[in-house]
Amino acid sequence: MTTAFITLGLFDILDILLVGFLLYQVYMLIKGTVAINIFVGLSLFYLMWLLVRALNMELLSSILGQFIGVGVIALIIVFQQEIRRFLLLLGSKYNVSQKFTLDNWFSFDDRGIREKEIKSITSACEHMSKTKTGALIVIAKSTDLQSYAETGQIIKARVSKNLLESVFFKNAPLHDGAVILANNRLLAARCILPVTDNTNIPGSLGLRHRAAIGMTQATDSHVITVSEETGNISYVMGGNIKVRITTAELRTFLEGDFSGFIV
Fold first, then answer.
1. 111, 115, 117, 118: CA torsion to nearest 10
2. Measured distance CA(239)–CA(221) in Å, rounded
3. N or C: at which end does the chain have fewer Cβ atoms within 10 angstroms?
4. Is residue 145 predicted with pLDDT exceeding 50?
């Protein structure tokens, strides 16, 4: 009578699937960043320690083991930005406290982007594209962007074509930085955004585009950019960017249809 060498139960399969999903999420989080090289280096270091132990090289094994012993602390220090980004995204996605506020229950007019604001944004971007006026427009989703808004000038005004064009006018005092739109209001201008550390971004994309990508990696917001050099309009979401879009495509994205979004 023979017995199976390995037995797999339902929870074993579930355990494997969860670990695989977790590793995939970690890979997606650090893909294209400097952290992926650090992760590979640490993995090679760990494999070398296992090889040294298998060969019974006691002295080298004990030295390497000292580094492995503080591995968790080292990982937290090395990947602190990636861990912070992951927790921010997790917290913004499952933020129960914000979902059950009185504002969310009784404020219906300010949920999402309304038709009037979409028209104002697309018209302003079309004009700024023609005049090659640089712009960086952040559209808040579920993440609270108050901390980013406080890096600039709080405005809290109704979104309009003239207001957006006035803010980004080259000689205007608030043109340098980003504007943040939340609840159909222009919440703040001249805001500072986090810049992505993704090394795979083409050199043709400047600091404005890198800030847009970094903002969508750190939060669930969407960002519109208008290039000051070329006048091209770009749309950024989830760390992915689609460049040289038309105003018709921009309007479609603002209405929530991302079927044509190409990574």
1. 110
2. 10
3. N
4. yes
Q: How far apart are the first and last CA of the chain?
A: 56
For residue range 103-131, list pLDDT tens digits in order: 444 444 444 568 889 999 999 999 999 99
Matching residue, tokens 């427009």: 137
Can you tell me the distance from the alpha carbon of 183 to that of 113, in angstroms, rounded to the nearest whole number? 7
Give the burial string for 143-155 (b: 16+ CB within 10 Å, else e). Answer: bebeebbeebeeb
Question: Comparing C-alpha atoms, which of 84, 83, 78 is closest to residue 45?
Answer: 78
Q: What is the pLDDT of residues 161-197, one digit of tens each?
A: 999 999 999 888 998 999 999 988 999 999 999 998 7
Give the whole-number percent of the chain exceeding pLDDT 90.
39
- Structure tokens, 148: 């980013």
Tally helices (H) and strands (E) across the chain. 12, 7
Integer Cα distance of 160 and 127 in angstroms: 13
225 bridge partner residues: 136, 234
Q: Find tokens 């090679």 and name the residue.
A: 44
* Residue 235 burial (C-beta neighbours within 10 Å; 0-12, 13-18, 19+): buried
- Residue in the block written with tokens 């090659």: 132
Within 10 angstroms of residue 252's Cβ, the number of other Cβ atoms is: 19
Taking CA atoms, 244 is separated from 35, 192, 230, in Å, by 29, 24, 9
The pTM for the full model equals 0.67
Q: What length does the chain have?
A: 263
What's the rounded Cα separation, in Å, for the pair 164 and 52? Answer: 62
